[in-house]
Give the backbone structure.
Amino acid sequence: MNIGIIGGSGLYNIEGLSFVEKININTKYGKPSDSYKIYRRGSLNYYFLARHGEKHSIVPHKINYRANIAGFKELGVNKIVSFCAVGSLDIKYTPSTIMVPDNAIDFTHGRDFTFFDEKRVFHIDISNPFCSILRNLLGKILHKNKITFVDGGVYVCTNGPRLETAAEVKMFRALGGDIVGMTLFPELVLAREAELCYANMSVVTNFGAGISKNKLTTAEVKQNMKNNNSIINNIVYALADELKGIESCSVCPMALNDTKA
Ligand SMILES: [Zn+2]
């Protein structure tokens, strides 16, 4: 069995798993952000990709999201768990809050956001943008590890690389947003277009502009990221056990059925 893991800011390796090799791929959409690192535990092969590249050199709007997802597909991955570092849009979601979002709003622009911009026309359904089976699995692992998390929430995706104004943060909150980041779109749309199951876990690293008067220090942000990484490593490690009994998804692998215009 194969699973894809996409690491966000601060996550460039998976610890605790045996490393097998690195694979470089050149897709018809170009090069992915980095090589895919393969790890193994039991019968599960993990394909890990650092979204921003291993040296964090690719800004959110320059990431080749199509190549990243096409690469996973070529490698035979049919499920992806992605991790993001995000800002909070609500005072109750303090730094280090873990959220498994269940919906999202897209404010990005100028990115290559579809595999279907020529010849074939598909209008895929993303009413529920995350795979419910993978989402539930993440929740189960978090529960088992006694890690407090917010089950469900709305991820607002901005274009970046700048942060948001205080007025934008207020607007996103009014629109129903809970967290704000720069990388979920078009990643999750492309995963659905590629008929892959996709779920996300986001970790709050800071408050959005104007939410809190207390400014976080860089040391605090770094410490939060370090703590988060050990949690993420534990969750990724547990996937090998929990994926064994998972029911097969009847939604994502058929995302293109009946959607051709
Ligand atoms: Zn699915």
